[in-house]
Amino acid sequence: MLKLILILIVLAIVAILIYASSKPDTFHVERSVNIKVSPDKIFPFINDFHQWALWTPYDKDPAMKKTYSGSATGKGATYAWEGNSDVGQGDISITDTTAPNKVVLDLHMIKPFEARNIVVFTIEATGDTTRVTWGMDGANNMISKVMGLFMSMDNMIGKDFEAGLAKMKTVAENQ
To answer: Count of domains in the chain?
Structure first.
C-alpha cells in the first residue's frame, strides 16, 4: 500500500512537471490608467526614483533600507532596497528614457527569489488626459512555471500595478 502511494505521488509530480514545462517561457503583465494632467507632469514621477515613494505600491516596510546611486534622474539612475519579507531585496536601474513618453528599467530581484525583468512605463497624451501604462516582461523558469499553475503572475503583480497607478493618478492630479 505504501509503495502504491509513493508511486502515485511520484506520478503526480512528474505530471505536474510535464504540464508546467509546456507553459510559455516568458510572461507579460501590463496595466494602464488615464490621468488628467499632461505627460510632462507625470514623467518626473517615474524618471526620478526619489519620487517613487509618492506612489509605489512596494514601500511596504517602513524600516526598508534604500540606496540611490548613479545619475540623479533618468538613464543611469539606480535604486536598491533591502527590507522585510514583504519587499525582499533587489535593485532597479533606468536604462533608457524618452521624455516625456517612456522610461525603461532593468529590475533585478535578489530576495525572496532571483529574477531579472524589464519594466516599461509608456506615457501617452490622449486628449485632455494622459494614459500611463506600466508593463513588465520576464522569463518563466521551471520554478516560475510550476508556481504559475497555482497562482497567476498577472493577477499577483497586476494588482500591485493597479494600486501604484491609482496612487500616481491621485498624487499627479492633486499637485
So the answer is: 1
Cα(33)–Cα(42) distance, rounded to whole angstroms? 12
The distance from CA 121 to its chain's CA centroid, rounded to whole angstroms, is 11
The answer to whether position 53 is within a domain reads yes
For the stretch 53-84, pLDDT in tens is 999 999 889 999 999 999 999 999 999 999 99
> Which of 60, 62, 70 is closest to 91 using CA atoms?
70
Residue 151 belongs to some domain of the structure: yes
For residue 11, being part of any structural domain is answered with: no
Alpha-helix residue ranges (DSSP H) falling in the chain: 2-21, 39-47, 142-148, 153-173
Q: Answer whether residue 2 is part of any domain.
A: no
Residue with cell 506520478: 11
pTM of this structure: 0.89
Q: State the residue range of the domain holding 153.
A: 25-173
Among candidates 155, 152, 134, which has minimal Cα distance to 42?
134
Which of helix, strand or coil describes residue 172?
A: helix
CATH of the domain at 140: 3.30.530.20
Q: Which amino acid is at 174?
A: N
Q: Please tell me whether residue 51 adopts helix, strand or coil conformation.
A: helix
